[in-house]
Every structure is written in structure tokens, then in C-alpha cells.
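Whiteboard transcription, Tuesday session. T.W. wrote the C-alpha cells on the left side:
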């Protein structure tokens, strides 16, 4: 065994040279890996005892891509281009042995090899678009030459990987290993030599490009097909252009075009934000005072109290992860309705071809519906998802405390109530935690976890791990009104309402925020969620909101009643501005003695967004969130903040903290202390520092 670098070894096994990469955790293509592969190829070509080469990785995966931590730093030789070039130019056939995930530069490296063997569970893909860039080491030129233009466009613009069997079917891998991957790849390499198979250079292949050369309209059709999903994103367009170049230019020129398009993206704000977000998401999984080796509680069975939309949605996450769920309702009728909704949701997924009938049956078989609270006595965690009423929740938690086995976690899905107060009615406050799922709970990725001062480390670590098991992205926060997500949302809602009192209309505010990149504006969102929810909460607290109340008094609860801030045609979700609402708004302004004025889009944007950033700063000051990036994770995954703007806190840094601060001060002078900058924001600006 020869160490080529500290991350790559070379040795001969029989007449096959084996290059082994070992760069935990994901064998990213750091400089030592690149140099090692290149050195390994040179060594194998000089080694007379070998006639072929296998590239294989130690650890949990094949190369998962370029080393993202090297981005933005001065480039170090050899470049990945040079490495892949040297593999492709090798005089001896090179076989990639793929396990885990061959992603980004990892798949590009494999595409530089003459052949590819994969383990059955391997996945391959080019996820660069998710980082706001494109595959910059030949991926946009080589992949289409193997799988054809339509599939290459789909893979490169979605960033989603494909599984080994699919990769075999489309010719992206040449063989699936039944047994040990390395031995299979070595045997494959020997076979290539024995049979005198050619050194297949993908860069020389053109036959899969012909169909698109004959029909260049395919690119515009594809653009149109992804327009909604790709709205405002820059990377998908450059991906399409790069793939198109593969049909218009010879391979070396295509590579140059790919490079130009890559650099354009790499230097842009969107990619900086998306790369920031990649690490933000992974950071959020770590809680500074909860060590990595904290013992976890085994979770094999889950109880859910409440089979409404939320309870049912939460249940679906666990069922899909193969975890049995006991779901409890107070009446048989409500229970049947809840179970029927779960079944209907699964059936819809099956009919769209996104789930097999067997998988659906398996999920339904793991569900135990009951009207007996006692039936959760043996579960490992209970998640309460009943309506938001402190007294009712306290009563329920006291009962659950008596019913559930020792060591079971008691979680609440409350979005507003004090989790500490709920936990204090039990004899096990250290086992009580908030698990705030976002609606629709089976779809939204965020899980806002709420620790009290008593929640144990083990319970926190278990719930963070559980979130990952069910495919959620968790962020741990502390107790405060609305926690992190809704507390910040309230600031935006207040300003949206204030702006329509002063002169804007709902469609103005919504348009500005939609154009900014949000999936919809605050008024369309309120219509979707149901305006009656806030109305009832206000009534309970004895509060009023002239416009919102007037709208609810007319029974305009939103989409579900066909009207709210907007009108909705039967069966349509498209909001249409309504003169009735405008009248309500004008009257409310007049009643409040406000002389309406023209409000610019810039003011709408700043007054909606800057108070959110300011609230985020207060949340950090109070220690409710650990890091600014956790707030960003919550807003991207819970509220659809555009990932290419990183999240509200990252956006503040892109705009400049000083700019945000100065605007807040100007609004404070005009409108009062509502806009007073948070002490943390002021300090950071004075010290020239950033949130991160
Ligand atoms: N570079 C640097 N670090 C990386 C990395 C990369 N490409 N991929 C993962 N990591 C780090 C993570 O930050 C994390 O670090 P911490 O433990 O310190 O938080 C660690 O590796 C483990 O990652 P995950 O927690 O994500 O592990 P997982 O098992 O859940 O997922 C994975 C593994 C599927 C490979 C996932 O990490 C992933 O999707 N990685 C990114 C893949 C990617 O985007 N590749 C393309 C890179 S760009 C490129 O290659 C450009 C080009 O064309 C040249």
C-alpha cells in the first residue's frame, strides 16, 4: 500500500491497481483527494504489474462532491478538471466503484472513468443547482452524452439523484454489484481487459445528443416546464444553457462554456446564500450544550393525540418511516374522519405515481386508531395535536403523565403556548418538549423543537435524531410567545396590516413579497390558513383589528369560504382583488383618521422585512435561538423564504446590517419606537460585525 497523499492510497491487487480514497465524512474532493487520485492514476499507468485501475472509497460513501468549504478560497492545483482529464486519458481502463452517493464532482469523477460499477443501494446525481451553481467539472457536457438531453436536463436542474437500478437502466452505470463492491469492480476491470473492451471516453460520444440537435426547441419547452418551480432562481437557467452547449459546441468548447456559466453563478449572491444555507441546515442539527454522545431514548412506537388535519399529518411522517402510530380522538366520528383523511392523502400520492400501493398498505397497517387515551400507555413518545387552549392541554398532559410509561417523552405541537407551563403540570417536566410541526405536517420540512428550562439533554438529542429519521429538518429554540417562526411572522403581519391602513392594498403588499420570492404574500397566506383562526384568538384576548375583523364579520374566512381578502372562483385558488375589501380598507383608514398615501414597493418591502430581522436580533439577544442561521433555517423550511436569499438574517447581511439599521432608525423617527433597532443590531453595526 502506497500513500499517494494523506487521503489517498494506491496498491495493486493482482493485475488491478486500486486507488482508495479516505476523506471522512463524505470523501469530498479536497485538494489532497484530487492530488491523490491524479497521483494514483500516474502510479497505475507506470505500474507494469497492473493492466486496469479501480477507484474506490472507504467509509460511508463514494465521493459526495467538491469540498464546499474550499469554495471562495484561492484555487489549489490540481483542479478537478485536470484530475478528471487524467483519468479519462489513462492508458489503462479505469473503473469507478460507487457506494453510498456519487454526487456533484463525485459523479463527474465517475463520468471521467471508462466504466462504473455500483452497489445496489448507491445513488448518483448532480445536486449543484441546490447550491446555486452548476456541475462545473464537465458534468453538463458528459452526463447528456450518456443519458441523453431530456434526462440530463431533469437531473441537473432538479439536482435530485437517481438510484442504482435506474442508473443501470439508462447506462450511467455498467454493472450492479451483487456482493462485495470492491471485488466486483476488480473482477469487472479484469473482464474489460480480458475481453479487450475499448477505453470508453464519454467526451468522445455524441450519439445521444443527436435527437436534441435535430429538435433544439426541446430546451425552451423544458424551460417552460420548470418555470414555476425555478421562479427567480438563477442556477437552473445556466444549467439549461450549459446542457444546450453540449449540443452546439465540440466537447472542449462546451467545457469552456460550462466554466463561464459556472463562474457567473459562483460569484453571485444567490449561490453565496445557498451555500451558506447548506451549512446552516447542518449546524441547526447541533445544540451546543448537548454533547454528540448524549444517550438516545429508543423510539419504536408513537402516540398522537388528536386526529385532525395536524395530528393526521404528523402521523403520516412516522408511518412512512415505518414507525407504528397509535392515534387517539375523543369520538369515533372524529377518529374515522381523521383516518379517512390520512388514507385519502396516501391514495392521492399513489395515484400520482409517487408511492406504491404496497407502501400505502404498509403505512396504513402501522396505524392503530383508538378513542381510548389509555392505549398510549406503552408508546415511547406522545405528540399532542389538539386545539390551542392552555387549560385543556394542561389537563391532557396531567392525564398522559399518569398513563404513559416511565421514560416516555410527552411532546406538544403547540404553536403559541408556554411549553414550560404545560410541562410543569407533569411529574416529568424533563421529558416534556415542544415539537412544532408546520402545516401541511406531512409535507413541510421544518420541525421547530422547543426546549424548556427543564427538558433533558437526552430528550432533546432524541427528538433531534427522530426529526432526521422522519425526514424533517429540526431547529431547537427556547420558549417565548410564538417561538421563533411565528414571533417573527407576527412582526410581518403587523406591518402588512399597517401598510394597508396607510395606503397600500392587499394585492400591493402580496405582490411585493411574492416578487421578493415568498410563495405568497401575507394576505393570500391568511386566506389560505383561514382568517377565522386569528379572529377567534383576538376575540379570546379581547383584541380588535378593524380590517381583519370586518372581513371575518362578513363570513369571509378565506379560500374555504370562497372569499377573504380576495375573491376565489369556485374550485380555484387564484386570488382576485375585490372592491368590497377595498371599501372596508378605505373605511377603516377614514375611521382611524388616516389620510391614505401612495406607498412605494421599496417601503412595503423594508417595512415587512426589516422588523422581522430586528425581531430575529432580539430573539438572539434573548438566547431563544442559538444562531442567526437557525432562524434562517426556520424561515426557509417553515415559511418558504426563498433559499437563494438565505433566510432573513443572511438577507440582512447581504443588504448590509448598517443599511438595515439606518432604515429602522429612519422609520423609528417617522413612525415611533416600534422600529427601534434591537440592541444587538446596534452593537454589531457599531463594531462592524455580522450575525455570523
Ligand atoms: N463538502 C464539504 N463538506 C461536506 C460536503 C461537501 N461536499 N458534503 C457534506 N459535507 C459535510 C457536512 O457539512 C457535514 O459536516 P458536519 O458533520 O461538520 O456538519 C458532514 O459532511 C456530513 O454531512 P451530512 O450531515 O449532510 O450527512 P448525510 O449522511 O445526511 O448526507 C450527503 C450525506 C448526501 C453526501 C450530503 O452531505 C450531501 O448532500 N452533501 C452535498 C453534496 C453536494 O452538494 N455535492 C456537490 C458539491 S458541489 C460540486 O461538486 C461542484 C462541482 O461540480 C465541482
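and on the right, the sequence the group agreed on:
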Amino acid at each position: 500500500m502506497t500513500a499517494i497523499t494523506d487521503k489517498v492510497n494506491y496498491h495493486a491487487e493482482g493485475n488491478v491497481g486500486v486507488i482508495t480514497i479516505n476523506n471522512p465524512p463524505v470523501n469530498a474532493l479536497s485538494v489532497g483527494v484530487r492530488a491523490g487520485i491524479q497521483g494514483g492514476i500516474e502510479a497505475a499507468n507506470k505500474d507494469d504489474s497492473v493492466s486496469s485501475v479501480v477507484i474506490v472509497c472507504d467509509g460511508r460513501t463514494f465521493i459526495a462532491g467538491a469540498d464546499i468549504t474550499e469554495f471562495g478560497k484561492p484555487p489549489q492545483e490540481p483542479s478537478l478538471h485536470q484530475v478528471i482529464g487524467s483519468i479519462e486519458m489513462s492508458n489503462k481502463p479505469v473503473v469507478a466503484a460507487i457506494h453510498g452517493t456519487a454526487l456533484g464532482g463525485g459523479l463527474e469523477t465517475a463520468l471521467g472513468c471508462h466504466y462504473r460499477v455500483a452497489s445496489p443501494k448507491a445513488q448518483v446525481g448532480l445536486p449543484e443547482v441546490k447550491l446555486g451553481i452548476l456541475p462545473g467539472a464537465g458534468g453538463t457536457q458528459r452526463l447528456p452524452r450518456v443519458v441523453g438531453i431530456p434526462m440530463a436536463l431533469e437531473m441537473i436542474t432538479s439536482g435530485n439523484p437517481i438510484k442504482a437500478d435506474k442508473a443501470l437502466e439508462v447506462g450511467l452505470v455498467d454493472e450492479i454489484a451483487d456482493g462485495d463492491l470492491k471485488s466486483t469492480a476488480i473482477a469487472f476491470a479484469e473482464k474489460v481487459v480480458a475481453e479487450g473492451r475499448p477505453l470508453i471516453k464519454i467526451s468522445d460520444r455524441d450519439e445521444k445528443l443527436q435527437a436534441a440537435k435535430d429538435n433544439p426547441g426541446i430546451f425552451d419547452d423544458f424551460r417552460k416546464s420548470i418555470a414555476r418551480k425555478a421562479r427567480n432562481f438563477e442556477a437552473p437557467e445556466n444549467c439549461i444553457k450549459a446542457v444546450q452547449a453540449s449540443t452546439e459546441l465540440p466537447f472542449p468548447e462546451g467545457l469552456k462554456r460550462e466554466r463561464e456559466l459556472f463562474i457567473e453563478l459562483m460569484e453571485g449572491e444567490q449561490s453565496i446564500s445557498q451555500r451558506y444555507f447548506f451549512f446552516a441546515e447542518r449546524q441547526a442539527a447541533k445544540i451546543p450544550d448537548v454533547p454528540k454522545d448524549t444517550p438516545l431514548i429508543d423510539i419504536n412506537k408513537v402516540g398522537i393525540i388528536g386526529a385532525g388535519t395536524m395530528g393526521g399529518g404528523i402521523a403520516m411522517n412516522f408511518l412512512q418511516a415505518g414507525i407504528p402510530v397509535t392515534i387517539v380522538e375523543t369520538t369515533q366520528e372524529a377518529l374515522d374522519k381523521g383516518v379517512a383523511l390520512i388514507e385519502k392523502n396516501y391514495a392521492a400520492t399513489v395515484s400520482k405515481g409517487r408511492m406504491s400501493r404496497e407502501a400505502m398498505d404498509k403505512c396504513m397497517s402501522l396505524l392503530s386508531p383508538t378513542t381510548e387515551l389509555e392505549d398510549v400507555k406503552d408508546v415511547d413518545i406522545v405528540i399532542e395535536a389538539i386545539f390551542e387552549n392552555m387549560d385543556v392541554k394542561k389537563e391532557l398532559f396531567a392525564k398522559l403523565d399518569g398513563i404513559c410509561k416511565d421514560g416516555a417523552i410527552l411532546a406538544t405541537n403547540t404553536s403559541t403556548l408556554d411549553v414550560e407551563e404545560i410541562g410543569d403540570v407533569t411529574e416529568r417536566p424533563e421529558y416534556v418538549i415542544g415539537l412544532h410541526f408546520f402545516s401541511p405536517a406531512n409535507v413541510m420540512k421544518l420541525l421547530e423543537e422547543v426546549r424548556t428550562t427543564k427538558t433533558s439533554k437526552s430528550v432533546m438529542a432524541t427528538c433531534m435524531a427522530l426529526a432526521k429519521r422522519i425526514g424533517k429538518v429540526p431547529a431547537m429554540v427556547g420558549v417565548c410567545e410564538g417561538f421563533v417562526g411565528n414571533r417573527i411572522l407576527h412582526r410581518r403581519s403587523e406591518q402588512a396590516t399597517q401598510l394597508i391602513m396607510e395606503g397600500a392594498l392587499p394585492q400591493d403588499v402580496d405582490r411585493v413579497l411574492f416578487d421578493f420570492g415568498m410563495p405568497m404574500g401575507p394576505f393570500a397566506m391568511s386566506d389560505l390558513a383561514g382568517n377565522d383562526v386569528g379572529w377567534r384568538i383576538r376575540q379570546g384576548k379581547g383584541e380588535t383589528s378593524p380590517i381583519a375583523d370586518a372581513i371575518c364579520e362578513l363570513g369571509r374566512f378565506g379560500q374555504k369560504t370562497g372569499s377573504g381578502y380576495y375573491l376565489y372562483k369556485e374550485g380555484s385558488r387564484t386570488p382576485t382583488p375585490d372592491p368590497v375589501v377595498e371599501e372596508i380598507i378605505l373605511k377603516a383608514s377614514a375611521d382611524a383618521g388616516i389620510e391614505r398615501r401612495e406607498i412605494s414597493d421599496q417601503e412595503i418591502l423594508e417595512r415587512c422585512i426589516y422588523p422581522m430581522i430586528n425581531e430575529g436580533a432580539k430573539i438572539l439577544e434573548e438566547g431563544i435561538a442559538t444562531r442567526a442561521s437557525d432562524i434562517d433555517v426556520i424561515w426557509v423550511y417553515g415559511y418558504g423564504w426563498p433559499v437563494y436569499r438565505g433566510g432573513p438574517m443572511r438577507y440582512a447581511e447581504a443588504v448590509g446590517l448598517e443599511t438595515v439599521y439606518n432604515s429602522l432608525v429612519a422609520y423609528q423617527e417617522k413612525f415611533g419606537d416600534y422600529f427601534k433597532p434591537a440592541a444587538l443590531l446596534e452593537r454589531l453595526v457599531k463594531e462592524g460585525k455580522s450575525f455570523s
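Someone added at the bottom: The mean pLDDT is 96.
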